[in-house]
Design brief:
Blueprint lengths: L2 H6 L7 E4 L1 H17 L7 E7 L3 H8 L7 E8 L12 E4 L9 E9 L3 H11 L5 E9 L11 E5 L5 E2 L15 E3 L1
Parallel strand pairs: 2-3, 2-5, 5-6, 6-7
Antiparallel strand pairs: 1-9, 3-4, 8-9
Helix pairs in contact: 2-3
This protein binds inosinic acid and magnesium ion.
The site of magnesium ion (MG) has 3 residues, from loops.
Length: 181
Amino acid sequence: MNPVGDARMGDRRLLRVVYTAEAIRRRVEEMGREIGAAYAPGDDILVLGLLKGSFIFIADLVRRIPIPIQVDFLAASSYGKQRVSSGEVRLVYNPEASMEGRHVILVEDIVDSGTTLKRLMPLLHERRPASLEICTLLHKRVAELEWPVRWVGFDAPGDFLVGYGLDFAEDFRHLPYIGSI
Ligand code: IMP
Ligand code: MG
């Protein structure tokens, strides 16, 4: 039997839980507070979620940010059905929201090779935000990034993680916890 093949069919027994729903909830609450404390009153803040992986994280995170913000999304795709990055990043949805003069926070689910950020950050800088910060739930700490990641939820193991928005070939996004396959 091929465990990955079975796991792809949605068999939860093959997942090892890495972060429980409760651990995630506690950390996201802290991150929301940290983000709220980092800006001055009156700052015009745009939280920009990178789809699809960040959709659950961003929904939980923005409800924990205790200051006024706006929310938009962008979509990039880098991994087809493989578990290693193809190195190619496509912007499949480009946000309409103006970024000029605004404080933009790019929200990622996980930073792995860093390819997605390397490709996206120059594009976002071109839109002349007042500041541009990166917030990620998980960081595998393998990438050498020229862009510092300001907020990190957890330093993640090298395993392939799924759940809480993260997928393997579109499966497992709906799990309330994060597991490895
Ligand atoms: P990077 O471009 O290699 O840094 O990878 C960024 C994107 O790849 C993330 O936003 C995820 O969508 C996806 N990714 C990277 N590692 C994992 C993983 O362990 N599980 C699920 N998706 C991942
Ligand atoms: Mg993905």
